[in-house]
Every structure is written in structure tokens, then in C-alpha cells.
Predict the 3D structure of the following.
Amino acid sequence: MQQFKKIFGESKQKIRTFFAPGRVNLIGDHIDYNGGMVLPVAINLGIEAQARPREDGIINMRSNISEKRISIDLQKEIQYSPSAGWGNYPMGVIRLLQMTHIPIQGADILLKSNLPVGSGLSSSAAVEVLTGYILMRQAGYEVDRLALSLLCQKAENEFIGVQCGIMDQFAVAMGVKNKAMALNCQTLENNYIPFDLGDFKLVVMNSNKERSLADSKYNERRAECEQGLSLIRQQHDVPNLCEAEFPMINELIQDDILKARATHVWWENQYVHEAIEALEEGDFISLGESMDASHLSLANDYEVSCDELDMLVDAARSVDGCIGARMTGAGFGGCAIAIVHQDEISKFKTYVGKHYKQATNLHVDIYECEAVDGVKEI
Ligand code: ADP
Ligand code: MG
């Protein structure tokens, strides 16, 4: 409060506090665009915001991660501007809220985040969904969370120009405490799955390796999947690679690379289903096995891992009490996750941290995470 008032000054209006989580995908990577399911959880790392209405139609925003001050005049047309930096994320959301004729008002908003930025934990979606949620609540709207997540995805696609799927915004908006979301990103069908790991903990490891190759390789992999699918479609009427039958992939795709890509997609989708079943039955050992298998598939068949992520996963797996580990997200850097017995966490942190540093000269940040609710007022 003190800091808020120091930055934005005094006012009679009430300051309200909100929180948007980040998210991590437990399993199911690079299959959202192939008709498969993803399994994200909203996590307890995220962005907190304090917000207070203004009567002059100006939205001022500050964030602890950047010196750049954002000031948006709602009377003027909002346009993307490279010099606005991070402000473009909230600006895109505000622009779309205006286009949907939601009568939003001015505000002072201060963001405080403990979510690593640009590491694949969806800090961008957290900023977007948080901004939209605050402004809608301030305007007196009951927020339709699904609609909000779609609006934020559209803002990231069209205003920022990042062709992300719906998973990030969906998880940030729709998360539920102690639940994972079994989501089909193409149909938006979603089932909440119990996420209770008993004596085990979900651990997120940030490799701090820049994801420089991620965008170009993402496009390349999408094209490879489309090519593989079109070969199958010459013989069979299948909607996507996940719904093909495995022998079709084996018999109809001759090219080794295309076959390997399709093989990952098909198996990864099986691993997601296995993981869901394991969570429903409280069978954490099976969950860990699916995660291990998924990592090998992403590393060997889909080739989107990197030395750093492989090292983290290897180091994690060699600690007693770790029953599964995998990279998560698009790959080429970002984060890996592990399931670790709660009594072994401190040993795990020491061991993985030391080995990773020795091997890569990079520091790994390790977080114990829980599944939390999506964006909300606190
Ligand atoms: P991520 O995987 O974290 O979503 P992105 O590259 O998609 O990575 O988004 C990161 C961008 O989101 C940052 O460069 C910044 O512009 C914006 N951002 C994330 N967190 C914050 C924050 N707390 N305050 C301001 N901007 C943020
Ligand atoms: Mg993002």
C-alpha cells in the first residue's frame, strides 16, 4: 500500500488486490496443434496486482520487473508500439476489451511478480488475464473466464503477434486449486483432474537457458506434422495425428524425420492419457514413468530438448526420491519439472543445483509448486 501510494499518489478510491498464477504443463507438449490433450496446472508463482480506479480515463501501470512506466489514454486509439515494451501486453487486452464494448474505466495498477519472465511459465498470459480481470471487475462485470482467456489469446496473437495456442491463457484464467486441467486446445473440452501428489511434490526447474531457437523450430515442427498428416490422409480420413492409428504412421510415412515427429505426437498423447489415469488413481509411480517416457520422446523423436534440459532431467532422475522428470513447454530452454518425495527436496535442490552449474555454468532456479486457483481477487 505504502509503495502504491508513493508511486500513484493519494486518492479516495479503494485499492483492491488481485492475483494471477503462472502455469506449468505436466505433460503433453507439442500436441496441442495436433488434436492432442495438454495437462496444465496453475501454479503458486504468479503476479500480484494492486489496483485503484481513476476518473480521468487513464490507465497507469507499473511493474517490479521493469522501469518502464505505462500510461494508456482510453480516449485515444490504442496501437502496438515497440517502445511500449511490456505495456503492449496489457494494451492489447485493453484494446480488445474496448472492441467488445466493455465500458472499462481508468485505473492505477501496480504489478509485483515472482514468476520468472520468458521461461515458459506463462508470465505473458498472467499479465494479460490479470489486466483483463481487474478492468472487468472494476467495471462491475461478472467475468466469464473462458471468454476472458480467449480474448487474451487473441490479444497475444493479433496485437503482440505471437501465435500461441489457448493453453496458457486458459490455465491462468480457469485453474482450480489442487486440480490439473485435461484440455483439448482445439475443441476447448476440459476436465478437471485431481492433482494431489500425496507425499510427493511438483518441482519446477528453470534452466535459465534462453529459448532462442524455440520460435523457428516450433514453426518447423508444425510444418513437419502437417506433412506427416497429409501423407496419412492420402489413404485414410483422419482429423489429426493424435487420432491416427499408430500403424498408419509406421506404414505411410517413409521419411525418417517425419516419421519420428509423428511418432512423438502419437505417443505423447498416450502418455497424457496414462498420466491422467495415474493421477485419478493416485499412482504416482506410473505418473513419473509417463513423464520420463515423454521426455525421451521430446528429446529423441521430436528433437526439441537441449543439453541444458537433458542435464536437468538426468540430474533430477539420479536423486533418490525423484520418480519422474521431463522438460516442459516448447523446449530449447525454459523449464523442466520433476516429481520428488517431500523428504528429499532439500537434497534434490543441492544436488541438481551443483551438477547443473558444473555442467553448464548456469544457475538453476528450483521451485516447489502447488496447483492453485486461476486469476482472482484476494
Ligand atoms: P513467458 O513464457 O514468461 O510467457 P513470453 O515471452 O511469452 O514468456 O512473455 C514475457 C513477456 O511478458 C515479458 O517480456 C514482458 O513483456 C511481459 N511480462 C511478463 N511478466 C511481467 C510482469 N510481471 N510485468 C510486466 N510485464 C511482464
Ligand atoms: Mg508467454
User: Anything to note?
Assistant: The chain has a mean pLDDT of 97.
